[in-house]
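Can you give me the bound-state structure? Components:
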Amino acid sequence: MAFFLARRLVQAVLILLGVAAITFLLLYFLPADPAVLIAGRSATPQMVAAIRHELGLDQPLVMQFLRYVGNLLHGDLGRSYTQKTEVLPLILARLPATLVLMAAGIVVEVALGLTFGIIAAVRRGGFIDRSVMMLSFVGVSSPQFVVALLLLYVFAATLGWFPMSGFGTARHVVLPALTLGVLGAGWYARMVRSAMIEVLRQDYVRTAHAKGLSGRRVVLGHALPNALLPIIAMVGIDIGQFMSGVVVVEAVYGWPGIGQLAWQAIQQVDVPIIMGVTLVSALAIVLGNLLADFVAPFVDPRIRSQ
Amino acid sequence: MNKFAKQISLAALLAASALVPARLAFADTPTNGGDIIVTYKDDIATLDPAIGYDWQNWSMINALFSRLVDYKPGTTELGPSLADSYDVSDDGKVYTFKLHPGVKFTNGRAVTAADVKWSIERAVNPKTQGPGAGFFHSIVGADKMTAGTADTMEGITAIDDHTVKFTLSQPDATFLNVLALNFASVVPKEAVEAAGGDFGKHPVGSGAFTLKEWTIGQRLVFVKNPDYFIKDRPHVDSFTIEVGQEPLVALLRLQKGEVDIAGDGIPPAKYLEMKKSPEFEGMIVDRQQLETSYVTLNTQVKPFDNAKVRQAVNMAINKDRIVRIINGRATPASQVLPPLMPGYDQNYKGYAYDPEKAKALLAEAGLKDGFSTQIYTSNTDPQPRITQAIQQDLAAIGVKAEIKAVANPNVIAAGGTQGQAPMVWSGGLGWIADFPDPSDFYGPILGCGSAVAGGWNWSWYCNKDIDARAQAADAMPVPAKAEERNKAWAQIFTDIQTNDAPWIPVFNERRVVAKSKRMGGPDEIYIDPTRVIDYEAIYVNK
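Here's the bound-state model for the whole set.
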């Protein structure tokens, strides 16, 4: 078990280095020169050259990359080209908002997905099952941008139940979390349903029924824990999915997270910020998967005994 | 040193600016007080006056800092600001400014002539990595500074605490305009150093407002500077910038009264609907700005190296139709300069839409069967749609243009690479003037000096005769020969277009801002030709 986790940790570091190298290369070969963008329209070629030198962009690629990784090991993500300020504080200032949003999104999708998945499994083939599966299909296929604007228009602009945008109170988080979670909820509902149907066919479930347990205890106490494992693995993967989803959701709801930061930096070829956000996102995905690996043995004794 | 140069008094400026709102019948005298909320989608990049150079932070930086001279609100007319008066030498090379006495930075220290010198040197120094360095090229010593071989500029001298002298290497009629740019804002050295490279997040100036709070990704709060040296300004107590606001959401909030100014304006798709809706009456400000959107024709790439071909494609474009694509938010353009710019020639009609004549000209150039080429464009709406219209117009005269829709930085890179982009549609990256002077539309985008790698002269146009005439025009002293100079510039631009046609000027886009009904004052202070939003002049109706 300890060996397994150590191996995953080493893998994680290698993945992060690989992500750093690939992102760095991609940005290096982008046909846009940050020095030209910074120097502005009134600059002469000499000024552009002077700025390129100040940024260290006149050095060979290998040197630039080594210096970047060297700084990275000291926790230094460099300075933004356009904002002329340290990148790390910019990301740290925005990270909590994104984490709150992701956590709320996961709660929404798991809660909705489990509830509807179980109901559909128990009432398999019935009207409720078919409606739930239909709805989940709609949820899975709806573009986030549309869901976001729809929720916003109905529940914030028209009904006024929630604020239209911003950050700070629990009411602010409801609509963004719903938007983020509703897509995943569809997947979860379908997955939980098929996992539950599988489990409900097992002999021990029949035994549980036979010894006179109530339907609720059979489903929630015996069947559900065995259907949970794929869900846990999926939550880990979801953290990566959410990292891309938050870009849209944050933009619509004015949520001050790192998705907005990334989007703006890409438009301005602000390489240090793009690198920083990419690395932090990669770290989140890696940690999410590590966490899933770590939690799985506690839920499923079969893994623990391996 | 003679006295022909004007002595301008602060009193005159205030009297003049007070007249601006009075011209409009519905506007009354500005009332003081009130806290307003302004929204933007994107973050504010920086508030450092030596670095900030986008249409969002420009007006905020303008409100935080003061400069030797400044524009009267809503106009393109220069007046005194930090300097009470100035003299210009006979040869137009020496400018001497007297500072207004008793002006203080918001950290309490008095503003001195040495601060003026240090601030401008900082803006030019390549270590600052600012986009404004090029504007100060005419000051003696600017070349050494930008080359990184000097730390100070001999052309700027602090004679005493209240007198600062600039020596230019050649007369420069635009010099006062340059001193009114944000890049020439006066900053306190100690605050810049204390911020440790983060002055853009901790700005200290002597302007109408101070920055009270900056919560990254959420809001910036600017409060009135109680010691501001211009009496009775600003009018509002504070303005809060809320960032990260989707433009459509901002409009919904505006409707509900939660927001006072939607800074990003109205998305093109909503424009006509809102413009026609009585609900939004008095809430939409829609004005001309100093902007021209154009297609560059690369004079170094075949077949655009032939002036006849460039003239032919100029006749092929149906500009009225393109204006309809963006719901009429622009006026078709006939020439390089926008209508509000001094030197704009009202009588010049440019090339009328005439596909038959265009085909004939192409045939004359030996291209009876047309040719294939490429047109680069920004990939954000509505630019690709506009480019498609241009593509169809070109197809009608037998020119097959392949559209290359890429991200803005890549359009800029393609335009600035020799021999790469035959045509570039400038929309979304269009030339908005830095200051209201025609020379700004020449040197950086049509002059020989900017036809270089990484430059913005994407036509790679270089006409030595025109360059000489431009230099002569800029050497004419202003204001003594302002009229003559504007005429010279008008002739330069119409000659360029008539003979060489390096551009297809397509339209002059208007700016649109949505504001709440309680905001007072004339439209021109919400779309100020040099400031974007003039936070110093806007007010809340009581």
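A couple of observations. Confidence is low (pLDDT under 50) at residues 1-27 of chain B. The first helix of chain B runs from residue 10 to 22.
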